[in-house]
């Protein structure tokens, strides 16, 4: 009977596009794309343009969350109509509960965004809290509020899985 080998996914770093390697020199932080920031040489890690790029990314994320919160308030206000059918009323209440849970998660994300902006101001942004090593541009583009390198985050998650919080 043939055995099947388990295949574990391997992490591959995003490839840098050599055509974009020097585009960042002639552009402002607001004009840079994710790909252009990824293509920057490692020697330019967390230079002024990258810091400004990530600050803009975080400020935009913060603004999007605030806009979304305003829409939630309006939506909840509109749906306060009394519905006689208990099933319809339960559906509306469940939708409200889901929306409020989402807003609570966004509220927690806002706190992380504020902390990340403060880290940019302090010059600590982009470096792991545990090891002091660079977090990496690819990880920061995917998760601008990251405070741990991928390896440190994996270790933390493994400890939480083994020993609980």
Structure commentary:
It is a single chain. Helix content is 57%, strand content 0%. It has 165 residues and is mainly α. The radius of gyration is 21 Å and the shape is extended.
Topology (elements, then pairings):
Elements: H1 34-39, H2 48-78, H3 86-122, H4 137-142, H5 150-163
Helix pairs in contact: 2-3
Average per-residue pLDDT, rounded, comes to: 82
The sequence of SSEs as H and E is: HHHHH
Q: Please work out how many helical segments DSSP would assign.
A: 5
Q: What is the number of E strands? A: 0
Radius of gyration: 21 Å
Assign the structural class, choosing from mainly alpha, mainly beta, alpha/beta, alpha+beta, or little secondary structure. Answer: mainly alpha
Measure the end-to-end span. 43 Å
The biggest sheet, with number of strands, parallel, antiparallel or mixed sense and barrel status, is:
none
How much helical structure, as a percent, in the residues? 55-70%
Low-pLDDT runs of 5+ residues are 1-13
What would you call the shape?
Answer: extended
Q: What portion of the residues fall into strands of 2 or more residues?
A: under 5%
Produce a short descriptive summary:
The protein is built from 5 helices and no strands. The protein is an all-alpha fold and 165 residues long.
């Amino acid at each position: 009977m043939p055995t099947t080998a388990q295949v574990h996914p391997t992490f591959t770093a995003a490839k840098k596009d050599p055509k974009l390697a020097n585009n960042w020199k002639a552009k402002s932080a607001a004009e840079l794309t994710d790909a252009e920031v990824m293509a920057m040489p490692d020697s330019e890690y967390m230079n002024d343009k990258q810091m400004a790029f990530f600050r803009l990314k975080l400020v935009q994320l913060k603004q999007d969350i605030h806009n979304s919160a305003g829409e939630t308030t309006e939506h909840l206000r509109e749906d306060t109509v009394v519905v006689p059918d208990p099933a319809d009323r339960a559906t509306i209440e469940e939708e409200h509960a889901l929306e409020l849970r989402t807003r609570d998660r966004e509220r927690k994300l806002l706190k992380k965004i504020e902390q990340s902006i403060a880290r940019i101001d302090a010059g600590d942004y982009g470096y792991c809290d545990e090891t002091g090593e660079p977090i990496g541009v690819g990880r920061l583009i995917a998760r601008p509020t990251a405070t741990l390198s991928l390896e440190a985050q994996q270790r933390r998650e493994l400890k939480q899985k083994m020993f609980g919080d």
